[in-house]
Amino acid sequence: MMKIYVGEELLEFSDEELKHMFIDYGREAEVFRYKDEALKVYKNVVRKGRLCEIEALELSEIKTERILMPKRMIHDYATGEFSGYSLKLIPNASKKRIPRIRKEHFVEELDVIFKYYVFILFFTACNISLLHNTKKI
Questions:
Q1: Nearest of 59, 12, 55 to residue 34 by alpha carbon
Q2: CA separation (Å) from 122 to 66, 78, 116?
């Protein structure tokens, strides 16, 4: 059984429902089909490399056509902890069957993400610099 918040929506799924919704799994998460979204739900194992909620929220602001970005954040019902995010559902996609896109389209999308992250890194660096240079009164 799984009880989670996806955005503001409280969802509860039985083990039988989860079997039918299951798409795929990886080292850090399992992916389930829910309406027109894929729910990437982290396993209970803590991994350093996975997205934290702040990063997922930042990525959800980037609008791309060909690179999947988080849509809605997922939180555990019992603990309230960030436990994944939803993505646009790509029918029949899996680790073994990745939809093909033209290289130039992919590069265009990466350029959008790169420009966004350069801005975020610059903004963060400026804030850190300001914090370190501000004297307490």
A1: 12
A2: 26, 37, 10
pLDDT value for 30 = 94
* pTM of this structure: 0.70
CA angle 54, 89, 76 (to 5 degrees): 45
**pLDDT computed for residue 135 by the predictor:** 40
Residues facing residue 108 across a β-bridge:
none
Which has the closest alpha carbon to 1: 84, 16, 9, 45?
Answer: 16
The single-letter code of the amino acid at 94 is S
User: How many CB atoms lie under 10 A from the CB of residue 133?
Assistant: 7
Q: Which amino acid is at 21?
A: M
What is the DSSP code string of 93-133?
--SS-PPP--HHHHHHHHHHHHHHHHHHHHHHHHHHHHHHH
Residue holding tokens 């829910």?
Answer: 34
Dist. CA 25–CA 94, nearest whole Å: 9
| Rounded average pLDDT per 10-residue block, the chain, 137 residues | 96 97 90 95 77 88 79 95 91 60 66 60 43 39
Q: Give pLDDT, residue 130.
A: 38
